[in-house]
Amino acid sequence: MLPARSLTFILLLLLGACTGREYGQTERREFVLERVNPPKHMLVDLRDAETGQVFRSVGVAKRCTAHAVRAVVGRTYRLESRSWRDSQGRSGREFTRLRNVFCG
């Protein structure tokens, strides 16, 4: 019989594998800030400057006090993101470090 610690580790590995998400390369692209919904649970709408694809209600932070200065609608930001695809054929884009960019 396996020790409880080993069994917990194995279960965590299996649960992680169940998501079935495959991630693409992390890349830095330019996005135009279309809309800001501050300050509690700050959400933004972003438009890819190259393709025109719009990402609505992207979560930035639970609280963001510097948004009035740092998150300027219409400004272009160079953001880090990566694409993903899951085992059911769904795909999307995941943004990283948005809090650093828009909240300081």
Characterize the structure shown:
This protein is α+β, with helices and mostly antiparallel strands and 104 residues long. It contains 3 helices and 5 strands, in the order H-E-E-E-H-E-E-H. The chain has helices spanning 4-18, 67-70, 98-103, and strands spanning 22-37, 40-48, 54-63, 76-85, 91-96. The chain has a 5-stranded antiparallel beta sheet with strand order 3-2-1-4-5. The longest helix has 15 residues, at 4-18. The mean pLDDT is 85.
Number of helices: 3
Strand order of the largest sheet: 3-2-1-4-5
| Range of helix content | 10-25%
Specify Rg, calculated over alpha carbons.
18 Å
Name the average pLDDT: 85
Key attributes of the depicted protein:
single chain, 49% strand, globular, alpha+beta, 104 residues
Describe the structure concisely.
The protein is an alpha+beta fold and 104 residues long. The protein has helices at 4-18, 67-70, 98-103; strands spanning 22-37, 40-48, 54-63, 76-85, 91-96. 24% of the residues lie in helices and 49% in strands.
